[in-house]
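Predict the 3D structure for this chain.
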Amino acid sequence: MPARICSFWGLRPSRTGRTLDLVEQRPVIALRGAQYVGHGRNVLGDPRVALAWLANELRQLDITLRAGEVVTTGTCHPPLPVRSGDRVATDFGVLGKVSVGFE
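Done. Predicted structure below.
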């Protein structure tokens, strides 16, 4: 089953997030010894566009995003086929690293 990985997370405003060009971010994904490179522009052209779209859609439903809520804006790499036992690690550079294992 393909998994969506490499999402930009809107955890809270930070100095890095305000000055970082999210469109040009190139996260590196490691899976079974291979490396794949994502691109921030794959998230609707700009992850902030995806966040604005979500906020506007929720507003029409009378739902408000609140400070501290976690928002994932989408994937910057096409889904990769993962199998039971796989471990996927993604390096977002200055934004940090994340990994997940599949049972």
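The chain is about 20% helix and 30% strand.
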